Amino acid sequence: MSVVILTVAVWFSQIILALAMMLVAYRLFIGPRAQDRILALDMLYVCAMLQLLVFGVRTGNAIFFEAALIIGMLGFVATVSLAKFLMRGEVIE
Amino acid sequence: MSRIFPYPVMTLGLFVMWIALAGATPGHTVLALIVSTGSALTLKALGEKSTRVKRVGAIVTLARVVFVDILRSNYDVARLILFGKRLDRKSGFMTVPIRLKNPSSLAVLSIVLTSTPGTAWLDYNAAQGTLIIHVFDLKDESHWLDLISNRYERLLLEIFE
Amino acid sequence: MTVDLVEYPLWAAILVSSFLVIGSLLTLIGAIGIVRLKSFYDRIHAPTLATSWGTGGMAVGSMIFFLVGGGRPLVHELLLAAFVTITTPVTLMMLGRAAIYRDRSSARPGIPPLGRRVELNLSEKPSEGELS
């Protein structure tokens, strides 16, 4: 019984997260301004990180959790540098 | 002691994190020691001031209050996003006067305000002690003023200043 | 390394499943918010749903899963939750400030100035418009 519940829940959350990623990717494409796209990119990173977390639960493999940590850190650095770029028009001052 | 470990809490945190991620082998213990003390010494060379926590008990209270508030505002914002067309919603900017001066307490306040869905920290003016936030559901401005100054700011003043 | 699913207790399975489902649904609501909300400053609130209880719920679910089933330490989830909680305010604040800066330099109505106090006209909302 618990096998069924867990399998269904894991599949459900993966599908839901994929749907969320599609919606966010839609905002990434339509914009309309640069800050909207960066916000959508940040959210896309978060969704990818959660997707990897669910993968880790599904397989029980620690490597997915490490990948999720790295995605989270990369997302942070990417968003901060892009926001910095919007602020002044250059990343390195 | 304080010359080798200028920031004991941060050094310990980095050390524990390294051990927990990499495993407690002798080589990694030495590496974790080098990395944690080295980064603390780097931070000291940059001239960052260490913060003193006045009341540890208030941290627990703050954590509990924030936990409950995040749960509640998650529900509120989720409802507004899903049924926002039918509910009457108005969002807008708000200027909040705050008494906090300590950088650590301002940092904690910014984390609390931004990670609570519904409020987003945008700018802090140190000269006038005012804060610009954007509020998702700005029906009642006094409610948010009351939330910030009586609920969070009072506890943060107890903890840091 | 893997968790024995056949012997897995039912209560834990239900708990883990509900946390995973709640976390993913909150993330989906955040994504819907990003698509549906009209202005940028409204949209900046949507990712916090995913980063506060979306991430928190899924991390707690995963922690319960491995705590009951055994198999691996729970460091990653704790670090992940802490890291996301600390970094989200920084990204959103910088993005919001960049947006205000850009909106002010293109003279949009209803945008507060940075670093100076003014009385705001709260009924006025920043309008969406041209590409830039």
Automatic annotation (TrEMBL), chain A:
Signal peptide: none annotated. Keywords: Antiport, Cell membrane, Ion transport, Membrane, Transmembrane, Transmembrane helix, Transport. It is a multi-pass membrane protein. Its main location: membrane. The chain crosses the membrane at residues 6-26, 38-57, 63-87. GO terms for molecular function: sodium:proton antiporter activity. InterPro entries: MrpF/PhaF-like. GO terms for cellular component: plasma membrane. It is found in: Cell membrane. Belongs to the CPA3 antiporters (TC 2.A.63) subunit F family. NCBIfam families: PRK06161.1. This is K+/H+ antiporter subunit F. It comes from Georhizobium profundi.
